[in-house]
Amino acid sequence: MNLRLNFAAAALAASAICGQAFAAVPAADAAPMPTLAPMVKRVSPSVVNIATRGTIKEQPGRNPLLDDPFFRRFFDVPQDSKPRERQFQSAGSGVIVDAKNGYIITNHHVVENASEITITLLDNRTFSAKVIGSDEGADVAVLQAKQPNLTAMPLGDSAKLEVGDYVVAIGNPFGLQHTVTAGIVSALGRSGINPESNGYEDFIQTDASINPGNSGGALVNLRGELVGVNSAILSRTGGNIGIGFAIPVNMVRSVMDQLIKYGQVKRGVLGVQLYSVNADIAKEFGLTETTGALVAGVAQGSAAERAGIKTGDIITSLNGVTMKSSGELRNAIGMLHVGDKVDLGLLREGKPRKVTALIAERSEEHSEVESPSPADIHRGLDGADLADAPDGSGVVVNKVQEASAAAQAGIRANDVIVGVGRTPVSNMKSFSEAVKGASVLVLKIHRGSDTFLLPVR
Fold first, then answer.
1. SS3 string of 405-440?
2. Which of 154, 294, 420, 444 has the smallest number of Cβ neighbours within 10 A?
3. Which residues does 216 contact at the CB level (< 8 Å), separation at least 6?
């Protein structure tokens, strides 16, 4: 009997000890679990669903392959001359950035051709919106819908982003409203994502899941600030594979300000033709680094000509910011306003110089042209009939065979080659000596009243 009582007492004591052990782990004393929930709750009301309806024109009996840019580019398929109209509806995302005025930013392609735009908030309120302005080049649009009790998302500074920073994407992929995904900044300054586009690309790359319907949604840092507008994905299937792209908020802010003020973006230009400096060009010009933009041509009467920029200069910086490529320089200039003064750092004959340019208004004659990479140009001068220029000023191109290597390189009849890289040429003999052993030829050419550089492989 005593044995049983002693066992019972021991069991009760053990139970009490265990109870105390379990009770000794109160949630208040434990370290809090890491979570993004507070930040997401704070910013989610600023992200909206955008539903659009509209009409587009298409050819009757149109083969779906004709909508494929690759197919359209390489196959000359005749189209019916009588297009027909087709109704469409689509969905995307947007971000409220000004609660008082009801401004919402999204992608241009989300609202393109839309005649009816419906906004749905997190609290399921629904109302219509109108387009204040839309810019295809930057793929940014500004909508307006004045409503009470809107919540705006604060804008961050995308220039402070670094690869490895944590980011959160919020949008409406596949119609699933207010989906939140997380990841990091995978890369910065991505361009050339859409080869059919002549847009201004300076994308943030992220592995936060972005899918169809996320377009126009928010890319947010851990402080709950907007750092990008989700725009595109790289995928063969149309679904997320961990490579998504967002437009930096600094670019969005610049475009948005002009769209609100003017209804369009009034981009300025320098009036130059540009090539990115690669290893071949760096070697030809005696450079130690493969950064910058080679000025291959200067338009007459342009801002560049007035500033004293010359063919053969290599632009290395804009307002103190290093320019790594022609695309980066083109983007930076494209975000400036007409009349802005810019300080340009450049190399001329290997020596650093600085010039100040006054950004001019865009025109067809003075538009910036980011030339194709020399790596995409066929090597050689085969197909060009060359001879000494009658006045001893260089090598004249008498004719160019159609579809030849020279024709594909951009050489034209009546061109006068006056230099190879930094070496001037006056005749066929000096030209032949200048091109010996060169892996790439950077030809200085007179064409009419213009002088420009043409890399030829």
1. HHHHHCCCCCCEEEEECCEECCCHHHHHHHHCCCCC
2. 154
3. 50, 92, 93, 94, 95, 105, 106, 107, 110, 141, 171, 229, 230, 231
Q: What is the DSSP string of 126-169?
A: EEE-EEEEEETTTTEEEEE---TT--PPPB--GGG--TT-EEEE
Question: Six-digit token pair at 425?
Answer: 């040429």
How many C-beta atoms surround the C-beta of residue 436 within 10 A? 7
> What pLDDT does residue 370 have?
52
Can you give the pLDDT at residue 166? 95
Q: What is the CATH topology of the domain spanning 377-456?
A: Pdz3 Domain (2.30.42)
CA distance 415 to 261: 45
In this structure, CATH architecture of domain 268-370: Roll (2.30)
Q: How far is CA 26 from CA 19, 20, 34, 77, in A?
A: 12, 11, 17, 73
Please state which architecture CATH assigns to domain 43-144. Beta Barrel (2.40)
Cα(96)–Cα(170) distance, integer angstroms:
13
Query: Hey, where are the domains in the chain?
Result: 43-144, 158-262, 268-370, 377-456
pLDDT at 173: 77
Eight-class DSSP state of 359: P
Place of tokens 């494209």: 334
Task: Please check whether the two domains, 43-144 and 377-456, share a CATH topology.
Answer: no
Give the pLDDT means over successive 10-residue stretches in the chain (457 positions).
Answer: 48 48 52 85 94 75 48 46 70 93 94 91 93 91 93 94 94 81 91 64 87 87 94 62 87 92 83 81 78 84 88 89 83 81 88 88 54 41 80 84 80 88 83 75 86 84
Helix (H) or strand (E) holding 253: helix 249-262
Tell me how far apart the alpha carbons of residues 341 and 122 are, in angstroms, rounded to a whole number: 43
pLDDT at 457: 74
**Looking at the domain that runs over 158-262, which CATH code has it been given?**
2.40.10.10
Q: Is the pTM of this model over 0.85?
A: no
What amino acid positions are annotated as catalytic residues? 109, 139, 215
Distance CA 350, CA 345 (A): 12
* Tokens coding 326: 């022609």
Alpha carbons 373 and 389: distance in angstroms, whole number: 29
In b/e form, how buried is each residue of 289-302, taking b as 16+ CB within 10 angstroms? Answer: eebbbbbbbbbeeb
**What torsion, rounded to 10 degrees, do the Cα atoms 369, 370, 376, 378 define?**
40
